[in-house]
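Re: the request from the purification team.
They wanted to know what the chain is likely to look like in 3D before they choose a buffer screen. I agreed to run a prediction and write the result into the notebook, where they can find it.
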Amino acid sequence: MRVLKLNFKYFVAFLLIVSNLQYGFSQKVFDFEDQGLDWSFKNSSYWKVNTEQSVSGSYALKYTVPENLTYEVPAITSIDTELTIQKVRTAIIGDKTQIIANSYEGTVLSVGFDGAILWKNKLSGFMNHDIWCADLTGDGNDEVLAANADGNLYCIDANGKLLWTFKTNHQNKPPMYAVCVVHDNGTPYVVCGGLDLSIYYISATGDLVKEIKSSTYSVEKPWGDNQPPSFVHYANFLRPVKKADGTEMLVVLGSNNHMQDRGSLYFFDVLENTPFKITGIEAPTVIGEFKVSDHDNDGVQEILLGTSGHHNTMSTIRFNIIDDSLEAYDLTKLGFGYSVTQPEFINDEGVEKYMFLVGQFMFLVDTDLDPESQEKLETKYSYNDMWKDPVSGKIILASSESGGSNIHIIDTQITGWKGAYEELKPKGKLEEIINNTEKTRNQLANYQKPESERDPLPVYLMTPDIDSGLSKTTADHIIANYNSPLFLGGSHMSVAEDWDRSAMENEKYKNKRDGRRNYTLTQQGAIDHITPWYTGKPGIAYWGGHGNDPYMFQRSTTEQIIDFANGKKTVLIYPELEDHSDDFAWVLNDLFYPLANYASDKNANIFVRTKHNFWQGNAYLPMWSRLLSGEFSNVFVPSMEETTDKAMDISIAGRAGIWASGATDSWGTRAVPDNPSFDRSRQFSNQRLPNHFLRHLIYHMANGAQYINNLAVDSDYISILWELVAKGALYIPKTNEIVSYSPVHLSMFEPDEHYLLEGSSAKWSTYYNSDFEDNNPFVFSRQNATWMASPVTSWDFSSYAGGVKDRRQNYLPNYPHGLVLITPPQSGAYVDATAPRGSLTSHLHPLYQNIMKEYYTDGRYYYSADKTQQMNADTYASVIKNDLKDSEQLIPLTVTGEVAWVVAQTSPTNLRLTVIDGGYLNPSEKKAIVKFQSVQPTNMKDILDGKTFDINSPSAVEVTIPCGGFRFIDITLSSPLN
């Protein structure tokens, strides 16, 4: 342990500025908090304000160091920024190194190693995909460069002021994704690149030097269906690498698919238009990190590439730039999760080693990459980024992926740093979330549902982990004392039925198989494998098939399993049913509709766990008409797996609209570790505290979701959700109890083909075509992988209806005018007058009976009810936006702020307002403004903590939502709502 012993008899004086003094009575009050530093009052007896000082000024702050005080330098220093930090870098400013931090919101901060927040710049308010620091002006101070999702590159000076902005000439700008600085004969050049498939050289003053289109040199080729153009790529990384002679070259890691393509390394001499060398990359999956090192001190840097993906694909590739050889070091035994491998070359207590950070694990390996030298450390949480300060060698960690706000500085040269890392427990927002959840759990223990409320509806927990710990205790108590939620049995299956498909008429699906499964079971073997799961359970949930192979089991096998259940619940999960070809129409008629008919009187469900725009797209194709009609409303359950997607705000409107229309009696949701993975090449998706899941699920369940399909991360933590349901604090409404729907709804015609393809093209990142984008505005736009975290257009449904600003992780949208349902047509030439579901208003609360207003779309255009008139999205959106604003006065209340919210009627004179912190991965204390519209409240009270809200100004009632939290508020009305 490195120990600093202070045995001074002297003191340190700190100058105070007189203008910052506050006067009260006859005393002078010194407000140190206004100085911009986190002043600590611990050991306050050591501090004294006096008038004796050795420098100019009227007052000084004297700190007297006690005799024989021993101060141990900590191995880890944590700094609370109050923001969720996603990227960290270092910069030289003056004669000091400062930490440059980038928050989830795109705010750039300069942070001293002493914890002082020196400056902040919010920039555009959109995500920064990459940050680079370098001295462009030659004054000894580094500038900060930010590649922003709005398509621009921002340059910030050493004081935090915007120095210049580089803008491409595109009207619809895709995100800027990568940035670095290279030098040619001492002259610095900024190089940036984005999803517009070009890289740009920019001068130190922000002027364009040249553009190099990837189409002039790329070797990347796509594969499969619905391919983007060949021989183009985007810059996954741009980095300077030193040659043997000490000069720099530019290396571009070009890729065309953020989820599957490893890409190629393109080596450029600075300012040259074509690479002098191109090398493919052999790796288990896509690349999510690019670092350099010189492990053998030969003056030639090697490239370190870290993978991004599932934990079974984690690896670091060391690439030799001289002979193009590579060595891979695979990281194993990581458990389930999704992360980025971040390699670095460090000094481990005097010994040079490689550090590989992946999820909650850190690996230390000798420079020869000998697996026998490996040392594996594990800590509680995972972190959003890691950076090594090149001056001190210290490692800097960004905030915890679970919504933390700390930056952590690790001195790997201090003995004991490894233990400190393993015991690291972040403070700040993460600690606040944990404390707030525990406070809510304690309040819930004393809550009793009012007699005036009905009993909770059944909620089906389809994949719970209740084998041990608090989760088991909680589940056992609920099972013994409550009727909901219900804990279903089931298990993951790596096997499927091997049955004779030779008579199958469809060649495509006759030959389809899921490569993740072994087809070894006989029919009886499959039945014997599955039916024991019913024992001691109210039912089971398992995969009946998959989009890769819906026929994992022949229909008769599934029917026999349903028969065995003898009335117990059976939920057949069918993930990723994306195919909308004639082949899949055949599957619906051969498998799904006959199975739905068989299940309709046997308490069995088909859980349609689809992706992308399905419930506001594919579901409106003719092949799905029997589901949409409500013929099998008690069988089909709309759900989603929204990994890799960027339009979760729309999918809630789509599923809720299907359910509210009467097409289905229930709907479902899912929370799994890769839910945040909208950018698969940056999968920092290993949140160890599933608070984001908790709030996402509360929002969906408050909107009526009853089928919950989760993959456990921390079941002890998430078990509070089960208690909320059991005790009725989280009110699960029927369709006719929700009163927070906007009276304006959007009805879907058969979807536009390009809209369908755009929404399902979530992997290829090279679709950008400026001419097409400039001339084809869509109602639901910017959903393919070109637009990761980009701003939504002002005319997009997400913007004017959902209150959403970007294509990112919008699981908790605000919908300031009420949730805008996306439904089947209710009037006009395309209404299905014979549908068993009946009309939309027959399923809604009576207040909606005569106030509904319908608009029509195919996802691309708006239309008249008979489809004879077609309106462009960019010009017609304002009509609907104005109608939304006017119509909000017809519902009981609306809520604005960075929150998600739902209102349901619980008795004739009571409403339940559920309001939730809307920061999915960047939680914080939020302010919500409740505006009462068509009702008169007499009381407004939180049902858990008992707080009563002031309703004297009913148009602006302020509600504070705890960080990572939620409130359930009972509102008493002056008269019944009917």
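For the purification team: The chain has three domains: 3-72, 76-281+379-426, 436-487+611-973.
Please add any questions underneath this entry.
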